[in-house]
Amino acid sequence: MSEDNKVVAELRENFGKGFARRLRAEGKIPAVIYGHGTDPQHVALPGHQVALLIRRANALLDLDIAGKGQLVLVKDVQKDPVRQVIEHIDLLVVKKGEKVSVDVPVVLTGEPFPGTVAMLDTASVSLEVEATHIPQNIEVDVEGAEDGTQITAADLTLPRGATLVTEPETLIVGVSVPLDTIAADEEIAEADAEVAEEQSEEAETAEGAEGDDN
Q1: Is there a smaller number of Cβ atoms within 10 Å at the N or the C end of the chain?
Q2: What is the spatial distance between Cα 142 and Cα 172, in angstroms, rounded to a whole number?
């Protein structure tokens, strides 16, 4: 665990929307901790610090609750849909060495074959992985991939110790020639065919005229 992930949490005994609003006005975030058969704990977290930490998917926080350490995984972040202010966070109790199921973002690297595009069909995959070794993302290299290339979940390179939960045949990336490129090529081909036909007709007319002169 990084020192950057250490967060001092305050236990709270007051609940309700009004109290939550007061907490947020003080720059704090209401949160609840649950899991491992324990009673839910309601805490307040330092807003700015935690907002930065949870930019990363599946953030792991090392909480200090009244002097007692507790490792938690960020499971759900509730935001105001308009202002995007964090309203509440759900935290799951985890133990070192324990495996958890998480959704990990997929990131494309490299450039496919010229004239093609790589489309991300599935933005994240579900993995079972150690709580303290959750990857930030799964990279998929599409360098030089040609039209028709399909990369499924089974093709992904997973971190050591991680197990794929997503169905292996799930399409992750598809490489193809854009439809507008195909349409443009067809238009060019049609135009070339029309020009060739016109030139052929003009040649035939010229040959006919020469025959008449003779």
Answers
A1: C
A2: 11
Coil vs helix vs strand at 9: strand
**Could you give the residue ranges of the DSSP H alpha helices within the chain?**
17-25, 47-53, 179-213
Which residues have C-beta within 8 Å of that of residue 71, sequence separation ≥ 6? 1, 60, 61, 62, 63, 93, 94, 95, 96, 131, 132
Q: How far apart are CA 105 and CA 158, in angstroms?
A: 12
Residue scoring higher pLDDT (101 or 24): 101
Instruction: Judge whether 198 and 183 are in contact, CB under 8 Å.
Output: no
**Tens digit of each residue's pLDDT (9 = 90 or more) over 5-14:** 899 999 987 7
- Is CATH 3.30.1330.10 the classification given to domain 6-94? no
Find where tokens 């990363």 sit: 56
* Number of helices and strands in the chain (H, E): 3, 13
Supply 143's token pair: 């360098």
What CATH homologous superfamily does 101-176 map to? Ribosomal protein L25, C-terminal domain (2.170.120.20)
Token pair 């439809």 is at which residue?
Answer: 179
